[in-house]
């Protein structure tokens, strides 16, 4: 048995290639059997790399073992081991095998064999063991040669972990450093926002380049590591690009993902069955307001400090918060025949409520969308009777009982300002808004374009109405803004007098022939013009056709 400790002094490549357990005599005691079993584990283990993060895949109920050697000659050699579970809790332990303190004298083999066997077995000890899913780091110190065995076991299901071993604890850290107080503070809560703050990582203060904070938001629970969060997202049935929060380099997004890049912040929104999972990387800022949350909903927030150069990360202590309830919108009373102009701020006020008490059995609601995107929801005595997104001019004719109470809720569906005109009236045969054609589009004829003129056409109705045409010279970079920001409820009073081209009356009882054309002359060659047509009904309230941009020919 004296020879059983020779493996501690063999070169590493011989250690891996030699199985000395076959040369050991058959054990005669339980301690010898345990010692042989422990030695056998080494010959079925893998060498753990020093100074590199290793990803290890574990099969359920099948242990996996790795080993490393601290060589003789290094006085008080320090080392550290960091294990990061990426899913379910695992069990892991560190065992150390040390040589006996002295060698037996020649000739003593027969008399001391049993005692030496017991002493050898007693030199196998467990340094550390842990069970759970937290990130754990073991720091040790060795003053002599030793061989260490790490054993990992998952009893719940197949999973993977990362392990980082280093024997150089003086030249920096693979993982970014957390502050002394790694908690995340909730400093503000609203119906749709939560504001967070956390203390700076020393790694950010020392090496700001290549280090950044990434925030994870979800409705399920906190995550103790970034790899655990990514594993959970993948298990929801979607593919997550590798190190999605760790790099701003381009990659393809899955259909369930939305990427938003604004103000140097990268946001990834993952649509999963349990709600949205958002990832936001905000550089080195240590405060952030999470926008666009749902009212009265509990969210979990995790902050990770990430080293973009090594893809290593460290997790702050996660927190959670419940958003406030959406305040009851102010209710405005609708009166017969009176138009109300409602303006919604997409960021502050997204809802607006109107109420109307019927004095007739038949009620007519009219909505003219002026700007943005708005959804209308109408209830009668608490029951939904209509709900849809508005477009242009929309009429709802409803039949109920006398003194029925109608509630109209308007909701902006975008962050920019939206506005709409609303009218409630029992007299549909006397509408304030004009009768509309099938389409409010303006058509231009390319073949009739010249350097100095443009011909346009639009549909009319069976009711004699007044139409006014306006033109405006614009530049290429103004087209999108002019078309998107146009207030479709504003009349010619908002236009400059020089932009007016003409006004005319027109109608045709045959809708197939209710089309009119107009040639606008006196234009400049190779120039962009914005054309608008306004339709006026009996009450004088205008309806604006969709603007049309036409460019005159450059050469004729």
TrEMBL record:
A GO term from the CC aspect: extracellular region
Keywords on record: Glycoprotein, Neurogenesis, Repeat, Secreted, Signal
GO biological process: nervous system development
KW RNA-binding (keyword) present: no
Primary location group: secreted
Record localization: Secreted
Domain Fibronectin type-III: 176-313, 434-542
Keyword Coiled coil attributed: no
One GO MF term attached to the UniProt entry: heparin binding
Signal sequence bounds: 1-21
Stored PANTHER family: NEURON-DERIVED NEUROTROPHIC FACTOR, PROTEIN NDNF
Role, per record: Secretory protein that plays a role in various cellular processes. Acts as a chemorepellent acting on gonadotropin-releasing hormone (GnRH) expressing neurons regulating their migration to the hypothalamus. Also promotes neuron migration, growth and survival as well as neurite outgrowth and is involved in the development of the olfactory system. May also act through the regulation of growth factors activity and downstream signaling. Also regulates extracellular matrix assembly and cell adhesiveness.
Protein name: Protein NDNF
Organism: Agelaius phoeniceus
